[in-house]
Amino acid sequence: MATGREIAQLCGVSVATVSRVFNQPETVNEDTRERVLRVAKELDYRPNESARALSTKQSTMIGLVWDTDHRRPGWRHPYLQDLLIGLKSALSAHGYHLLMLATSGDAREVGASLADPVGYVNMTRRHHLGGLVLIDSGSDAEAFESFAQSGFPCVALDVAVDGPRATYVTSDNSGGAREAVAHLLGLGHSRIATITGPPGNQPSDARLSGYRAALRDAGVEPRADYVVAGDFYRASGTAAVQRLLALDEPPTAVFASSDEMAVGALLAARAAGLRVPRDLALVGFDDIEIASVVDPALTTVAQDKPGFGVAAAKAIMAMITGGGREEPVVLPAKLVVRDSCGARQG
Amino acid sequence: MATGREIAQLCGVSVATVSRVFNQPETVNEDTRERVLRVAKELDYRPNESARALSTKQSTMIGLVWDTDHRRPGWRHPYLQDLLIGLKSALSAHGYHLLMLATSGDAREVGASLADPVGYVNMTRRHHLGGLVLIDSGSDAEAFESFAQSGFPCVALDVAVDGPRATYVTSDNSGGAREAVAHLLGLGHSRIATITGPPGNQPSDARLSGYRAALRDAGVEPRADYVVAGDFYRASGTAAVQRLLALDEPPTAVFASSDEMAVGALLAARAAGLRVPRDLALVGFDDIEIASVVDPALTTVAQDKPGFGVAAAKAIMAMITGGGREEPVVLPAKLVVRDSCGARQG
DNA sequence: AGGGTCTCTGTAACCGCTTACGGTGAAACG
DNA sequence: CGTTTCACCGTAAGCGGTTACAGAGACCCT
């Protein structure tokens, strides 16, 4: 690989000039600039990233924190691939790469662990990262918040953080849920239950409040026994529906905070001999791939999955170049009507 | 962030000694070593990765090439998340990070594009990457092969490459397919068709040969009109079944080279008024999430998804530290019998 | 003609770490 | 007691860039 020095020698200039050609082109004479550029192209010159980062204290990498929740092993992100597609392509447009940080460092290494909050800061500094994108796995909220305070650019997904150069992106969870439940109400249901995610989870809480808002809008009395907590997993959806069906006055419709739980609910309903949507209408959230394939196809609230990544990339790039805090981004969440809610029969 | 020099000053030693404490501990006196270690821990010292990489020409990063096929936009990996989980956790154990390379560089940049084969080499050098993990998207086979020849450690997924420090990992596609088709034969089917992936795609070709081998084993005459090419997408599975059903002597069972196509096949069968598995038995490949959720649940050949990542990580680490070529890894592919093949009724 | 500006470029320090090399003092040796 | 040997450590030269600073001409002005 050609180095700057080789270019310099071949062009009869100093390395400083070569560097200037790429970083402050306007300060170098047009003739020499072209000469340098031509030789650089011939030798296929690429500035060494480590050297550049060392001297500028800035790399072209954004860190990605994506841990699987240690309290819930097997946790999976509902649409990681789409998110990454959006993130990567938007970052690529700025010439940035995505560094997926190792979760637990080599024991030989000097405290390379990411476990503690300062781990994030250390990683960011060690690699001169432009900033961090934080994917919520449900158990790092405190660490995220503390990193956000550190002043490094950072954008969290689906969890609110605050800091001098921090922001977050999330869906309009409350709005989406509200629309979903309103849809159910519009279909004539009034006994509508909901299965929430883990209490404390921000998207889940927002969806719950959207559910409540929709009932309030319609003047339907909320019932505590119609709100049952799940954990976003399929099994919890099944369990929730079993509990709901055991009530004296079981619901005729269920809004689940995730498609996985909606699928679990579907299985439970089927096992109980109920037909969906005739005996029990069902709406989910996320619009994961499964939603459209299950039978009946799931009515659900779709999130802008690649949009998450794109928004995160934009926000972090803005904070890197701008220097200030960015406004949180809330992406639209749209109801996708399929078969599980019963609208198509009506 | 504390630097080596600060540690050195506080300990009254030179920076060289500090460095040695971490890189060749046995060459430094125990007392001073402990002193340095203690101070380092107090100051929470972490060697700067850029500086280290610059001087050793070795970073602790592995590059990940994961492009979406430009000829088939919207291409998605069937189980990227599981693969990444395995890859990341295995690399983390060695203290390595995963760098997702930007696909198309900033235009301002000096030829930062990854498009051409040398793009890979350049990226690897610029960042002092330990090597590359290549995810096949169906259209980079030549670029992969050429990178493999470059001598940098590299492991490709689902596509064979060869080079001084290159290897690949793949599933036992042929064996898995053979088992699947043998299962169908065992259920009494003899008119078994197959839907392949894109011709030329290695896993697809291997699955096709497994299909043929199973027929041969059973003494069943292969029929050219029972082999129809798809592209791994759902729609192609639908189209394929429509063609198959139009034959004079339609098959009674279909082996699809991907679950997506199997789902498409399922939809086509249903649309044609056929019941699966009674009228048409179906087996897929991959065991993606959808497989277990679709109705009837898909019998399919399961790949060891996280195992892919783990094997890739192991192979590349071995090549980095070892220096030689590693044997290709072929992961077991196991038939998972569910409902779409009819075995459960029998 | 002397001085001030402006443009362009080279010199050299620096980023933080690694490592070849050489030096020092103590222990071991003849 | 002189000489080797060895363990330990410091000096300094990189790695490949960036950038503050200063110097050299060219040009314009009074």
Number of strands of chain A: 12
- The gyration radius over C-alpha positions of chain A equals 26 Å
Give the largest interface: A-B, 60 and 60 residues
Helix content, binned percent of chain A: 40-55%
Structural class of chain A: alpha/beta
Number of domains of chain A: 3
Strand content of chain A: 15-25%
* Biggest sheet statistics of chain A: 6 strands, parallel
In whole angstroms, how far apart are the ends of chain A? 68 Å
What are the defining features of this structure?
Rossmann fold, 346 residues, 12 helices, 42% helix, 3 domains, 12 strands, 16% strand, six-stranded mixed sheet, DNA-binding, 434 Repressor (Amino-terminal Domain), six-stranded parallel sheet, homodimer, alpha/beta
Q: How would you describe what is shown here?
A:
- The structure is a homodimer of 346-residue chains.
- The first copy, chain A, is built from 12 helices and 12 strands.
- Chain A is an alpha/beta fold.
- Chain A has 3 domains: 44 residues, 434 Repressor (Amino-terminal Domain) (Orthogonal Bundle), CATH 1.10.260.40; 137 residues, Rossmann fold (3-Layer(aba) Sandwich), CATH 3.40.50.2300; 131 residues, Rossmann fold.
- Chain A has a 6-stranded parallel sheet, with helices on both faces. A 6-stranded mixed sheet of chain A has the order 7-6-8-9-10-12, sandwiched between helices.
- In chain A, strand 6, helix 9 and strand 7 form a beta-alpha-beta unit.
- The termini of chain A are far apart.
- In chain A, 52% of the residues are buried.
- About 3% of the residues of chain A have low confidence.
- Chains A and B meet through helix 4, helix 5, strand 2 and helix 6 of A and helix 4, helix 5, strand 2 and helix 6 of B.
- Strand 2 of chain A pairs antiparallel with strand 2 of chain B.
- The structure holds a DNA duplex (30 and 30 nucleotides).
